[in-house]
Amino acid sequence: MFVRQLNMPITSLKGVGKKVAESYASLGVSMCSDLLLLSPRTYEDRTAIVPLGGLRDGQYANTIVQVVAHSYFGGLHKRTLKVIVKDVSSEGDGKASLLCFGRNFLEKVLRVGSIFYLYGQFQRNFKELQSSQFEMLPLAHDGSMPGDFGKFLPVYPLAGLLTQRIVRRDVSALLEQYQAFENELPEYIIKEHFLMNTDKALRTLHFPDSKTELDEAIKTLAFTELFYLQLIGRRKSATARTDIPETDVSITTLEQKFIAALPFELTKDQLQVLQEIRKDMINPSPMNRLLQGDVGSGKTLVAWISSLRTIQHHGQVAFMAPTELLARQHAEKAAQLLEPLGIKIAFLTGSVNQTARKNLIKALANGEIDIIIGTHALFSEDVLFSALRYIIIDEQQRFGVVQRISLLEKGRSPDVLMMTATPIPRTLALTVFGDLDISTIKTMPIGRLPIITYLVSNQSRERMYSAIKVEFSRGHQAYFVYPRIDSAGDSGLRDVESMYQMLTKEIYPGIPAALIHSRLPEDEKVDILLRFRKGELAYLVSTSVVEVGIDIPNATCMVVEHAERFGLSALHQLRGRVGRSTLQSYCFLVYESNLTEEARQRLMVMKESTDGFYIAEQDLLIRGPGEVAGTRQSGFLKLHFANLLTDLPLIAQVKTVVDQVVAIDAELLKLEHETLRRVLLVAPPFEEKVMEG
To answer: Which whole-number Å values give the CA distances from 195 to 90, 121, 482, 654, 661, in the listed order?
Structure first.
């Protein structure tokens, strides 16, 4: 199993030190297994000669050239070497200039008269063909192609100090360490559907010999990924429970007490979803339900009420949130709502000190805790339950499949409720997840007013500041969100640190505010939010760290700067931080000039609607489901190889195969979770999605 073989840090590879490891971490690569599944974003075909003659602007040449002359251009102290080459391949006769910025030493390497293999991107400038980005290697004595020439090369995503040469080196070293990786699919499925074995597919993914071979490898890996993803859903029928406490679907005593104490009535949709969950909980097959609802629609309240049934029958509940801020807020709300009923609640994150953690884990294992609320700390091996029967996962799209499996293993076929404010088209969800049940809350709590959204150009900025000042005079609060923490990198984007200085000193002097972002210590972030909730602060200057779950009813203004750089899901989540009471709320989306057509479409969708379901549909139309839920975004699915836009026929094919497996292959259906981990290695979750820092 290649997961076990590669379950070691990336620094175990020769040449990967601390700095390079930090660069890999920016891509979500911390373990060797992550690197193996780092899919190239494209490939360079260096197998065929592409001569200099007839190249169009931006096209790549791949040919044999002879150096014919050297010259220099620029001032006396900033001279730049220009190397003139001519094509001597059998297919070419063109000439070109190689501009060696900062590399004048190449005069001694690229000697006049010598012959090299050349690969580079060219443009026509000053009536000549030029390139400043090129690779050259001397022709071998036997005429064979040296180095990377003559190959089909992967082009990986990069970050920090990483170069294509470094990533290719490390992937090659990794593949050389292991003679073969075990098959992830049964042999009969591989043969019947003309797939590669796992070992060949993984090696071909990184270093294919041809485009045809690459397509076969990607198909195999996508098939494998979809197969086990769908198989998980089908496993419900194979894990039937025999210890269901009752078969009565009626409301429990604890639920009745809780609902009666609420100062408002539940919406029609909330009542409907609660009934759907009750029916699932008395079913021999464990619940596997997705609860989707717009921001502020009351999903979490439904989760708390549904947990009371489990607790009344002496079961334990695990509630998982993606960030410590959100988990802490849920814990505070749960304590306020549930502790009066005698329910014992605990809070566990990575920042809990060791003494408190030890006592908490002991109490949890002894059954002295009814509900534990936490982050990824709940996955830890030492976190054991006495009777885990219900798992609630908030913002489930931020957790990978493997992580959810890890929590499932801590209970005995527990019910699972996954919640998301990012609506998922039912056809896509059912196609991929199989028999996942979906509940939807569309109605908002009584008294909520639609948020008014304004698109603000730079020219209208002062009017926006004045309008928000009026809200401050009414005792209301605001958020100002920026895409960066500081000005490092000279990107030209506004950042929280600079704008905090401007807002507090020039725009709103004397009005209390605070700066909050992911680099602050956790206890400092918690203290700032507590002060904001108490009304001691009028506004927060923040990154997208406030995107999810921050619930301040008195906040009526959300300002998002450089809104054109945020996705629709992020913009909708940010807007959902206001409008959480009966107060009229406003969202100001500030944009820069020269919008792309896609950015303009996104902003218009936000202006036209506050309906998260409509926004999700428009997101699909603008970007396609492959972008929303595929390899390039952390949408509700984190898929490495399958693409929900282009692979629909493959998804249908896999669904048929899984249906057959469920019927005839009981052993495969009962695979241990460790086996599933081998093929469901997904990117780790992250807390802030938009360019922070």
So the answer is: 38, 36, 47, 12, 17
Hey, is 424 helix, strand or coil? coil
Rounded Cα distance, 575 and 548, in Å: 10
Query: Quick check: helix, strand or coil at residue 210?
Result: coil
Instruction: Report the CATH fold assignment for 1-47+168-179.
Output: DNA polymerase; domain 1 (1.10.150)
d(CA 173, CA 158): 18
CA end-to-end span of the chain: 37
Beta bridge partners of 371: 317, 345
- Residue 230: which residues within 8 A CB-CB, separation 6 or more? 432, 433, 434, 654, 655, 658
Q: Is the dihedral of CA 28, 31, 37, 38 positive or negative?
A: positive
CATH assignment of 452-609, among 3.40.309.10, 3.40.50.720, 3.40.50.300, 3.30.470.20: 3.40.50.300
The answer to whether 578 and 556 have CB atoms below 8 angstroms apart is yes
148 CB neighbour count, 10 Å cutoff: 17
Alpha helices in 145-267 (DSSP H): 164-177, 187-192, 198-206, 211-234, 253-261
Which ranges in 339-425 belong to alpha helices (H)?
354-365, 401-408
Sequence spans of domains, the chain = 1-47+168-179, 49-150, 186-239+651-679, 245-441, 452-609
Rg, C-alpha atoms of the chain: 29
User: Which pLDDT score is estimated for 90?
Assistant: 75
Token duo for residue 116: 């090299």
Task: Give the Cα separation of 603 and 594 in Å (integer).
Answer: 13
pLDDT in tens, 100-113: 998 889 999 999 99
Task: Report pLDDT digits (tens) over 473-522.
Answer: 999 999 999 988 887 665 678 889 999 999 999 999 999 999 998 888 88
Q: How far apart are CA 673 and CA 413, in angstroms?
A: 12
Could you give the residue ranges of the DSSP H alpha helices within 503-596? 522-534, 568-575
Query: 426-445 burial, b for 16+ CB within 10 Å, e for fewer?
Result: eebbbbbbbebbbbbbebbb
Interior CA angle at 114 toward 113 and 118, to 5°?
120
